[in-house]
Amino acid sequence: MAARACRIAPRTDDPDFTRALVPDAPAAGRWLALDYALDRFAEPVRPLLRFVRADGTHEDALLPGPVLGRAVWLGPVPPGTTDILLAAPAEGFRIEAARLLSRFSMLALCARRRPGKLPVALYQWLRRDARRLRNTLRIAAGVRPLAQYPVWKAERARAFEPALDRAPPGQPRLGLILEAAPAEAEAVRRTLAALLAQSHRDWRLALLWRGPAPAGLPADPRIAGDDRPDGVAIGHLRPGDVLAPDALAHLAAAFAGSEPADLAYADSEEETPEGLRPRLKPGWSPDLALTTLYPGRPLLVGAALAARCGWEPGTGARALLLAATLAGPARARRIPRILCRTAPEAPDPDGHAVDLAAALSSAGHPAAPARNGAVLDLDWPLPDPPPLVSVVVPTRDRPELLQVAVRGVLHDTAYPALELVVVDNGSTDPAVAALYAQWRSDPRVRILDRPGPFNFSRLVNDGVAASRGAVLVLLNNDVEVLHPDWLSAMVRQALRPGVGAVGAKLLFGNGRIQHAGVVVGLGGRAGHILRNRPADTPGHLGRLTVAHEVAGVTAACLAVAREKFAAVGGLDAEAFPVDFNDIDLCLRLGARGWTSVWTPRAVLAHHESVSRGPSVGPARARFDAEGDRFATRWRAVIRDDPYYHPAFSVTTFGEELE
Length: 658
Description:
The chain is an alpha+beta fold. It folds into three domains: 6-156, no CATH class; 174-375, Spore Coat Polysaccharide Biosynthesis Protein SpsA, Chain A, CATH 3.90.550; 389-639, Spore Coat Polysaccharide Biosynthesis Protein SpsA, Chain A, CATH 3.90.550.10. The chain contains 18 helices and 31 strands. Keywords: Transferase. InterPro entries: Glyco_trans_2-like, Nucleotide-diphossugar_trans. Pfam families: Glycos_transf_2. This is Glycosyl transferase. Residues 390-506 form the Glycosyltransferase 2-like domain.
């Protein structure tokens, strides 16, 4: 093992992969450990490594974003690798250390960090199961659960470096509000000490006491008792909040320049009964913000937006966030940096906490009853009468699966206006023919005969062309309806003007999560977040309890308005005949301004790929070829899924640190 096993060389033959890592010794078949740093004020987009083989094929590895100023990655160098290319920011980025490790070194790391994984790794090694061994060692040595956040943070935190960390110039004044009771004087002192130590000095604080002000507090002309402090943006603090030294510099930068933010927020950490935990927040997600108030603190709202949305001083932080979100900020910016250690939440002693359900309902967003300061879900209305929905089911043989799926649609679904289009891809089982003969007597059913090689995208497109509904639902033949309201829940979302694809909560037969939204970049290309977790898993920040924005959803159960599906040309049957077609559709819809939404109100069982079986041999080669096309088309999104934090691992099924 070498402390510096690689040097950096320039490359000019690819606009993204502008540099190469040149190992001092043969690297193929070994493991590469990289430590790298980035300007704290640069966007921490994930770096990308490309391992190129002699035959011109390659394998990509997505690295974590350096959200603490520094990051660490540990992964295998595939056999046959001849070149290692790097896509990373052109400025403010540096490799601090590069080491080549043997498999024995990786086993030792595995034994030290996750000893329970060692027997699994040894068993896979003896079986020569290289793919599973690689994944086991990657997870054991390079991924940490959220419970290990303090260790993860200590390994990655970097001291401020004036030569590397360049705050943008011309940062504006910020206005802050801190309300406190006399009994909270010590907590206020901690908050003020952090505020007075900020590198950004142009701020004003309205310190509002609910009772007599305690003696002995630091005096500063920027601190006053006005209820509306001067500044281009306004934000709340809570007694005990401790801002990072450069927190206000980051936040002020969001409101500078020619396109200042209307709203900006950053990550935080908080003390919990289980210890210090991070709150790593997704990119701007209005639905999630309205239902969970996930931006929390630190949060600043532009003074112009605060005035336009009708917020009044004295109504509290939650009212500010809710009013600003309902007003629809044109430029909402997430700063993926941990900028504040927040004080524990507590009921507002003056009753300033907003009744979110009532507030949303009065603003035209009916909501479910409040729970723990947040609403369960927004209740989007259905038109009266509801529109016709066309459910399109591609299938071949497997009558026992198809019968369950069709029965669920026709008889177990409480939606009054639907049709079913079954697209048959050359079934030969007589039992399937018998089912078709039975269903043809139902005027809601249409059966298309489409024999030939399996091309899921073309089968779906043909089914859509033969359908009549204003809303389309793509449904696999191995999906089982569990609750009668699933279709209404999806149609409510699909009819919203700004929504494109809508996905359902799909469960394996054992009741665990199969689909809760797709993360672009997970597994290197795209994957299902929190797959195989218990069905009631709330997800980070509670997002699996409510409908929320995601990068994509699976076509195993996907709803979309016909006009939007047609506007992007349907599924891409040439580039993605079998796999990645659904995520590609979602991203093309997103490029037109239509957001994908996942809802937990539509719950179905999905016996995933039972009818097709796993991808092996030629099927695996076809899968990899489609995956490469997907990665080429959507490289920028793979490196920065807006709804998945850059500190989260893409090696596991999500929400662990890397």
